[in-house]
Amino acid sequence: MRLAFERAGFVIRAIASLVDWIVVIVPIGIMIYLFTGEASFNWTQGLVWNIVYYFYLVITPVFWKGYVIGKKIMNIKIEKVNGTKLTLLDMFIREVIGIFLLGVVTFGLSTVIGGLMVLFRQDKRGIHDLLSGTFVKAE
């Protein structure tokens, strides 16, 4: 069965996440270095960083029509299965509950399973996509 449109698979989604990290972390790291003289990325390990980064992952796609920077560069975007607009609740469920909290509670097992789901399922939807009613579209 062929889907009506292309779904973004595991590799392109992983590259988009890596691009996102680089585009977001490197400029902040440079600013921290300019102010402190310390070249370290230890600041990405704390609670404050996680809150800021997940805030970015929840808010940006709602106002930028399914994109975060990495997804925009890779020409993929988050969409609702039912065709409605993404909401803050959708993105909170997807990113915070479906990826972060589930990953913490299951000691990363849900992250591995979600990745395998995106890799092997025909509809390319992971646990976080199923919970939030979303998918990632390749444009």
UniProtKB/TrEMBL annotation:
Keywords: Cell membrane, Membrane, Transmembrane, Transmembrane helix. It is found in: Cell membrane. The keyword Transmembrane applies. Coiled coil: none annotated. The keyword RNA-binding does not apply. It holds the Pfam family RDD. Signal peptide: none annotated. One of its GO terms (cellular component) is plasma membrane. It is a multi-pass membrane protein. The chain crosses the membrane at residues 12-35, 47-68, 96-120. Residues 8-133 form the RDD domain. This is RDD domain-containing protein. It comes from Marinilactibacillus psychrotolerans 42ea.
